[in-house]
Amino acid sequence: MISSRCTSGHLSTQAVQYTVTNNVATTPGGAKFTNQIGIAYSKQTMSSATDFIWKTFQQTSNADRKNVPKVSLSIDSIDGVAYTANNVIHWNGNRQTPRGLIEGIADFVRLKAGYAPGHWVKPGKGDRWDQGYDVTAHFLDYCEGLRSGFVAELNKKMRTGYNGNYFVELLGKTVDQLWSDYEAKHSGNYFVELLGKTVGQLWSDNKAKYNTTN
């Protein structure tokens, strides 16, 4: 068992047990895991990841945190490819939160930790705000830019339930309005959203005002 430390540097009284099981130890991938990564290093990495998540969600005491006494890592094989799975420790709104938002928050943590893979979509891409994964992660990062600590506050609100008005309470706009602003920012139409004119129209107005031809 490894006792995780909270981000303030104080020893947490909430002990989390980390378990690692290599179910494919006799396969090439399983042997590579044993020889190059190992169980001890995996547990330490899981502990560090837990600390980072607590820091991201501004959870400095046990009262703020979801009670997850055990986090498991399983090494298995799917068509010869090793993969890992572990518990999610952020709040899920008592299972009322949209699945895409839950997945997006998890990937938002990856984004802030600097582990966003190269195949992720670029900011501004996607069909809807709760599409999940990288799409929602980038959208949440945009919201975080509007209000520092937004995702942490949203997570706190989702402790016992979920309501779409959380976005209004925290940012003053509905999530659909925020998604439209987000799309506009990355599509080059942000000037329209803010000033009601395209950047070309604003430039023309500027030239007319000063009677210039350049």
For this entry, what is the oligomeric state of its chains?
single chain
Q: What class would the helix/strand composition place it in?
A: mainly alpha
What percentage of amino acids are in beta strands?
Answer: 5-15%
Could you describe the largest sheet, including whether it forms a barrel? Answer: 3 strands, mixed
Uncertain residue ranges: 1-13, 79-87
Mean pLDDT: 81
Strand order of the largest sheet: 1-2-3
Number of strands: 3
Q: What general outline do the C-alpha atoms trace? A: elongated
- Give the N-terminus to C-terminus distance in angstroms: 70 Å
Helix content: 40-55%
Pfam families: BSP (PF04450)
Write a structural description.
This protein is mainly α and 214 residues long. Helices cover 47% and strands 8% of the residues. The chain contains nine helices and three strands; from the N terminus they run E-H-H-E-E-H-H-H-H-H-H-H. The chain has a three-stranded mixed beta sheet with strand order 1-2-3, covered by helices on one side. A hairpin with a 2-residue loop joins strand 2 and strand 3. The chain is elongated, with a radius of gyration of 22 Å. The termini are far apart. 21% of the residues are buried. The model is unreliable at 1-13 and 79-87 (pLDDT under 50).
Using brief descriptors, characterize the structure shown.
214 residues, three-stranded mixed sheet, 9 helices, elongated, disordered N terminus, Uncharacterised_BSP
Write the layout of secondary structure elements.
Blueprint: E1 17-22, H1 28-36, H2 39-56, E2 70-78, E3 81-83, H3 99-113, H4 133-146, H5 150-157, H6 166-171, H7 175-187, H8 190-195, H9 199-210
Parallel strand pairs: 1-2
Antiparallel strand pairs: 2-3
